[in-house]
């Protein structure tokens, strides 16, 4: 139960930081928005609020004892030392910090590709690295095109591509 609650609270904390700090700090507010247009921070806020609600729901289910428990067979198969898991967690935090810093330099798309690639590598799965590399490229580009072309959301281009 505690791991479910902690996982839910961690997810809620992450999306709370995105909602309260990153979006106001990095999403520009234009001087004028036509009445029919959505503001640039609309979709990032929707996603952050949804993630925050999902995290709080997971924590609530964990408190109620109704979350998905870890099966004993999965624990027996996972023999990854805690030191390795802590190093991966530290590397993931560093990847998110690098994402925030690199967004200003190489733009959102380049930083998103690097972050997705880092997250895939940090899973520890080495058999499907070619698929992971393709996914690290296709997923951010697809989401970027969807949000910029279909929804009209602008992302920071970065200093190199400005």
If you had to describe this structure to a student in words, what would you say it looks like?
With 162 residues, this protein is mainly α. It folds into 2 domains: 1-30 and 38-73; 80-162, no CATH class. It contains 5 helices and no strands.
Features of this protein?
162 residues; mainly alpha; globular
Number of helices: 5
Subunit organisation of the chains? single chain
Instruction: Please give the radius of gyration in angstroms.
Output: 18 Å
**Helical amount among residues, as a percent range?**
over 70%
Q: List low-confidence stretches.
A: none
Helix and strand succession?
HHHHH
Major sheet size, sense and barrel closure = none
Overall SS class = mainly alpha
Q: What characteristic shape results from the CA principal axes?
A: globular
Number of separate strands: 0
| Percent of sequence in beta strands | under 5%
Number of domains: 2
Overall pLDDT level:
81
Distance between the termini: 48 Å
Summarize the SSE layout with pairings:
Layout: H1 2-26, H2 42-64, H3 72-77, H4 82-122, H5 129-150
In short:
Helices cover 72% and strands 0% of the residues. The chain is an all-alpha fold and 162 residues long. It folds into two domains: 1-30 and 38-73; 80-162, no CATH class.
